[in-house]
Amino acid sequence: MKEERVMILKMIEEGKISADDGVKLLNALKGENGSFKKKDFEEKFSKAAKSLDAFAKDFKGKVEEFAKDAEPKVKEASQVVWEKTASAFDDLSKTIKNIFETKDEKKNKNDDIIDDEKDINKSDEADDFEIEVENAEEK
Q1: Contacts of 4 (CB under 8 A, 6+ apart)
Q2: How far apart are CA 29 and CA 23, in angstroms?
């Protein structure tokens, strides 16, 4: 009888049966006078097992229903995340490209300015040379 009591207490501890069902089983183990009544115990244990089985089936059905309902929502959410991530990477790529293009454009613009300054300097040098030639001719 001790083994049965330990088994019942363990089932309560593991949450397999409720405390109330455990008390009923423990009471079934001992009769009115405290003696063991195997028939009562077996009946109550069988009833508790059926109750647990019904609960398990009901729980399984609810979990399956939840999963079935959640599946399209999860797929939709993952698609949205995928699209937003792709969009963010596209934006980031464009920004990086613009940064480098802007740097290249500034460099090219600076190069053009330098070239213009060189042309101006050459023109000034040519003008100075012409003036010198004219001065030399006048002398």
Answers
A1: 29, 41
A2: 10
The structure tokens listed for 97 are 């490209």
Output the CA angle 68-85-81, nearest 5 degrees. 15
Phi, then psi, of 2 in degrees rounded to 5: -65, -40
Instruction: Provide φ and ψ at 14, rounded to 5°.
Output: -80, -5
The answer, yes or no, to whether residue 82 has pLDDT greater than 60, is: yes
pLDDT of residue 32: 46
List pLDDT tens digits, range 105-135: 777 777 767 766 666 666 656 555 566 656 6
Residue with tokens 């089983």: 25
pTM: 0.37
* SS3 of residue 31 by DSSP: coil
Listed in sequence order, the residues at least 6 apart from 40 whose beta carbon sits closer than 8 Å to its beta carbon are: 28, 31
- DSSP summary character for residue 40: H
